[in-house]
Specification:
By secondary structure, the chain is an alpha/beta fold. The protein has 2 domains: 4-194, Alpha-Beta Complex (inorganic pyrophosphatase (n-terminal core)); 199-326, Diaminopimelate Epimerase, Chain A, domain 1 (Roll). The protein is built from 12 helices and 12 strands. The chain has helices spanning 4-13, 27-42, 95-99, 129-139, 146-160, 170-181, 186-194, 199-210, 227-232, 243-248, 278-284, 302-319, and strands spanning 16-20, 46-51, 67-69, 80-84, 103-108, 119-122, 213-215, 220-225, 255-263, 266-273, 288-289, 293-299. It has a 6-stranded parallel beta sheet with strand order 3-2-1-4-5-6, covered by helices on one side. Strands 7-8-9-10-12-11 form a 6-stranded mixed beta sheet. Strand 9 (255-263) and strand 10 form a beta hairpin. The two termini are 27 Å apart. The chain binds manganese (II) ion. Residues 28, 85, 109, 128-129, 159 line the site of manganese (II) ion.
């Protein structure tokens, strides 16, 4: 782990950068990439933006069109690769090339990130990677503008759920207020991120909510959607990343879970909590994330995995931990 100052000095030194975010990019991943991209360009650096997965179609921030979608054949050459908002292992189909880059910088805010690179800067206290980038631009004395402010504001509302999650601090509000001074329009940005659902998704959501189940006096809430269900509603699983937030809306929920069979036999599991450490549960299952928002990918029979994880979560709610001796998952 490096200090913030070491990261700042290193960024000044190099001239060619390629910025990469995580697979299935979310607003914070994209916002931190774009904010740093425009900043480094202002410093006279050469800079490229690369993503292994396509950009969500509902976002319209300036600069998103600059992101090169390179699912394969990624070659960093002699550029310095900066991985934002995840560890280099999580950059999707280009991950092996990213990890082998001669110059690698990792900037992240995920707890227990297994960052690698010449410079690794992880601040789990930051509400979003976009917050870290905001501080970086300040330290590098780069003047902000509307494009940078839009990207960083979008990243911040993405990761704070529109200033509703536990990571929403007074510092976050101060940065957001400053970004609005640059001309950011909070309402259309929030609408883009939180209220731009397709007709097909809304119909799918109606179905998914009929699948809502509870256990442990309602403390455990979950939704399980199979591969066939996605197919029936013509919905791509990637468009349903936020489904777990609907499970979390149940008033008694302490742990909310969504099981999505994104490919036959490949189940993506998302956790949300208000207080309980679901990062522990995700790591137990070979995944990762934050204390209150985490996830894992499991392979096997869909119904069996749902049953086993529900039992595991019940045990965790009762005992506050899981007996490693019973671990059937890793
Ligand atoms: Mn983030």
């Amino acid at each position: 782990m490096n200090t913030f100052q070491e990261l700042v000095s290193y960024l000044r030194k190099k001239d060619n950068y390629i910025l990469v975010g995580h697979e299935h990019p979310d607003p914070d991943s994209l916002g931190s990439m774009l904010g740093l991209y425009f900043g480094l360009k202002k410093m006279g650096k050469t800079c490229r933006l690369v993503s292994a997965d396509p950009i969500p179609p509902y976002l319209s921030w300036p600069g998103l069109e600059q992101i090169e979608h390179i699912p394969t054949d990624f070659d960093p050459g002699d550029s310095c690769v900066i991985v934002l908002d995840c560890e280099p292992q999580r950059t999707g189909s280009i991950a092996s090339k990213v990890q082998k880059a001669e110059c690698l910088i990792n900037i992240d805010h995920h707890e227990r990130g297994r960052g690698i690179g010449q410079i690794v800067y992880v601040d789990p206290g930051a509400a979003a990677t976009s917050v870290i980038v905001y501080r970086l631009l300040l330290a590098l004395e780069i003047p902000l503008d509307l494009r940078i402010a839009t990207a960083l504001y979008g990243g911040i509302i993405g990761d704070t759920g529109g200033f509703r999650h536990a990571n929403t601090t007074s510092g976050v509000f101060k940065i957001a207020a400053e970004l609005v001074e640059y001309g950011v329009k909070p309402a259309p940005l929030a609408r883009e991120i939180f209220s731009s659902q397709t007709y097909d998704f809304m119909r799918f959501l109606g179905f998914a909510l009929t699948r809502l189940q509870i256990a442990a006096e309602g403390k455990l809430v979950w939704i399980a959607v199979s591969y066939d269900d996605f197919h029936d509603f013509k919905v791509v699983p990637e468009q349903t990343d936020h489904l777990v937030n609907f499970a979390r809306m149940v008033d008694t929920a302490e742990i909310a879970m969504v099981f999505r069979e994104i490919k036959p036999g490949e189940i993506r599991l998302g956790f949300r909590a208000n207080q309980v450490d679901v990062g522990y549960l995700a790591r137990y299952l070979g995944g990762g994330g934050h204390k209150l928002a985490s996830g894992a990918t499991l392979l096997g029979n869909f119904e069996q995995i749902v049953l086993r994880v529900v039992e595991l979560a019940k045990e965790y709610l009762n005992a506050g931990e899981i007996d490693e001796r019973n671990n059937q998952f890793t």
